[in-house]
Amino acid sequence: METEPPITGRRGLRGLLSDLNPRNIEGPRLPLTVFCLVALLAGWDDTALQLALPEIKEDFGLSVTMLGVIGTITLIVTNAAGLPLGYLTDRVPKRVRLVQFGQVAANLGDVVQALAPNVGLLIVGRTLGGVSRLPNDVAQVPLLSDYYLPSSRGRVIALLRMAGGIGSLLAAPIAGYTVTVYGWRTATLMLAVMATTVACLTFLLREPRRGATDRAAAGRSEAADGTVAVERPDTEERPPPRFWEGIRVGWSIRTLRILAISSFVYSIITGLVGMVASLMAKQDLFLDPFQRSLVLEGQMVLGLLVVPFAGVLADRFMKRRPALLAAVQGVCTLGIGCLVLALGLFPSVPVYIAVNLLFSMIAGVQVPSFIILITQVLPARHRGIGLQLTAPFQLAGGVLSPALLALTDGMPLRYTLISLVPVVVVAGLIQFTAMRSVAGDVRASMEMA
């Protein structure tokens, strides 16, 4: 057993600024830098293709229905691949290979789309591009969890989210310009070359030892004088789990079950709220597309600004009182319910703008906190498949949302929003119940590492 210097635990403004500095994150610099660069360019090709849908429709002589079929095929395939890829992430000895070859294959899918002479190859390229990105999306959080200690994961995941948000902010104007100047095929090829260049950086990554950071954190204990005693963890890895073992272990974690059920309820209304609010902006508030786009840009900027603070908040809560991170989920959801109610009761342009800006700030805190919370309660051996367990519930909620909307068909939009508030409240109350189990589940996950 060895001793390390005391943990300072600085508070106040100076401590906050120190925590916000990425250089103060304990762990290697390269993995976070590479994953952030990959996240920065992720989706630029999709944005270009979305902007070029009219041109693609004309080039191939497609109907609107056929465009919808292509999108549906891609959606079904990508959603169905989540759990198997999560299982694969837990089984393979080299998870970085999933990221590396997945990125290369995804960019190859872009090239196939750009050069496709017919609809069949267009669908092949679209599906290849969508599915091949999934290994990176599924494996990156388990990998980052093994590169960085639990005390730093909140800031790590927040920086990853922030990089993705900045990429989304830049994607539309850059993709729109390249499509306008060079055409959709050349623009897609150009963006694929850029993404491939960044993807090559993933070949510099080394595979981290699975669960090593959890074992290291479990081996630390703070003495009365503030020094930290470190027990050298066992470096032997356990054998990889089987598919149903991963499902069973993940579902046995009470906090994860609660978050999965709440995400089912939450996903029923998230798409509906955005759609109804957008319709209200045009039909009731008479905002034109340019005015609505300014509100959207404001949402994206404010959402990005709060993400780093969400990471610092998550790390501090997990260190001192993990139950508060579960409380953040419930408070944020109830806050969304209040915003929806306000817009329904007082529909006006100022209220619409304020509600949308505040909603983006709440989402900027809630989404990374949700991922961080799941990561901390899952054992390292089951993190790949465990992180995918909420996806079927979210998908089921999204499928049921049109049925809920049908019940309000014909009602004024403001009353439709008000009718969604009870569903939001139910989701928030479910999330609050996770406060009782978070601390115990975090301890158990470290012991199982």
From TrEMBL:
It is a multi-pass membrane protein. InterPro entries: MFS (IPR011701), MFS_dom (IPR020846), MFS_trans_sf (IPR036259). Residues 31-439 form the Major facilitator superfamily (MFS) profile domain. The keyword Membrane applies. This is Predicted arabinose efflux permease, MFS family. It comes from Streptosporangium subroseum. CDD domains: MFS. The lineage of its organism: Bacteria, Bacillati, Actinomycetota, Actinomycetes, Streptosporangiales. Residues 214-239 are annotated as: Disordered.
